[in-house]
Design goal:
The complex is a heterodimer of chains A (78) and B (271). Chain A has 78 residues and is an alpha+beta fold. Chain A has a single domain, classed as TusA-like domain (Translation Initiation Factor IF3). Chain A contains two helices and four strands; from the N terminus they run βαβαββ. A four-stranded mixed β-sheet of chain A has the order 1-2-4-3, covered by helices on one side. Chain A is globular and about 30 Å long. Chain B has one domain: NAD(P)-binding Rossmann-like Domain (Rossmann fold), CATH 3.40.50. Chain B is built from eleven helices and eight strands. The longest helix of chain B is centred in the C-terminal third of the chain and has 20 residues. Classes of the chains: A alpha+beta (78), B alpha/beta (271). Chains A and B meet through helix 1 of A and helix 3 of B.
Chain lengths: 78, 271
């Protein structure tokens, strides 16, 4: 993992679809290929947000369990 | 990105769209759209543009609300009868979305005032109900280089097209207003209320997509529908080199108004 995380967003407690909306807004401020870390709750958030990110052409780089939340690192698509 | 937490939530269903996103929503908040006619077409257009967060919306209409308008002009309520339409509409739009600044022009467009009214706007929606106004709006927009959406409805039928500088204009397709009396007005022929909603909403969607800059506008195409049998079709149209306003040798070089007999003005209600 040679790349640094450009931005990190704590979305613990933020419900669907607002967590995805905020993730999208954060990605808009980055360049293609940049990495963003989002902290997501287990359950609906983890089921939906990574899937939606993949559908929009972004890449999930790494998922780390932090107890009842997860750290998801996403690479901005083209 | 300057969206507030409240705006992120209010416009979340826009931001979720790949073709809109935060950047598209920002464009909407900075955009200026003018709606001419706050009747059957203007009512749904004004509500959807206000809901969408179009930052400045101008409303032009000299009429007051009539009881017979309420069957289709959904921005006006029973208690608004006899109030100026632009005031009635402004109140609903501001209540719907405080992000929106509504500018009112309680007058009819004519050859002397239209250029100054459209000057400050990015996109114009023709929601008028009569041919002289439709040709005047076309001519003013062509001469000023302003994009606009044409819309017309009657009984169960609707038609709409969008002009941007360089595309076919309304006069390329319809050279001049039809002879007096050849086409009845809504007050004579009737109109299914929902048809106004269908067409005004298409016009709002044209304005929104023009601002966002995504997708394909209804340029060089005329969309026609009949809501009695619920059939839609598209007719490809082309810029006419002989067009009297945007052709190679234009004969209309300044704004003119087609004749409008007094009796017609008195009996007319906005579509």
């Amino acid at each position: 993992m040679g790349q640094e995380i450009k931005k990190s967003l704590d979305l613990h407690g933020v419900v669907c679809p607002l967590n995805f909306v905020k993730t999208k807004l954060a990605l808009e401020t980055l360049n293609a290929g940049d990495w963003l870390e989002v902290i997501l709750d287990e359950g609906d958030a983890m089921l939906n947000v990574p899937r939606s990110l993949k559908e929009e052409g972004h890449r999930i780089v790494k998922v780390t369990s932090l107890g009842n939340t997860y750290s998801v690192v996403v690479e901005k698509g083209p | 990105m300057n969206l507030t937490e409240e705006q992120i939530e209010r416009y979340s269903r826009h931001i979720l769209l790949k073709d809109v996103g935060g950047a598209g929503q920002e464009k909407l908040l900075q955009a200026k759209v003018l709606i001419i006619g706050t009747g059957g077409l203007g009512a749904p257009a004004a509500l959807y543009l206000a809901a969408a967060g179009v930052g400045t919306i101008g409303l032009v209409d000299g009429d007051t609300v009539d009881l017979s308008n309420l069957q289709r002009q959904v921005i006006h309520f029973t208690a608004d009868v006899n109030r100026l339409k632009v005031e009635s509409a402004r109140e609903k739009m501001e209540a719907l979305n405080p992000d929106v600044r509504v500018v009112t022009y309680p007058e009819r467009v004519n050859k002397d005032n239209i250029a100054a009214i459209i000057r400050d706007y990015d996109f114009i929606i023709d929601g008028t109900d009569n041919f002289p106004a439709k040709f005047l709006i076309n001519d003013a927009c062509v001469l000023s280089g302003k994009p606009f959406s044409h819309g017309g409805i009657l009984r169960f039928d609707g038609q709409t097209m969008t002009y941007v500088p360089g595309s076919a204009c309304y006069r390329c397709v319809f050279n001049a207003p039809p002879p007096k009396g050849a086409v009845p007005t809504c007050s004579e022929a009737g109109i299914l209320g929902a048809v106004a909603g269908m067409l005004g909403t298409v016009q709002a969607a044209e304005a929104l997509r023009y601002i966002i800059g995504k997708g394909r506008l209804l340029t060089n195409r005329l969309l026609i529908f009949n809501a009695l049998d619920m059939e839609y079709r598209q007719v490809n149209i082309r810029r006419n080199p002989e067009c009297p306003i945007c052709g190679e040798h234009p004969t209309i070089t300044e704004l003119v108004e087609a004749e409008q007999p007094i009796c017609d003005l008195r009996s007319r209600y906005h579509a």
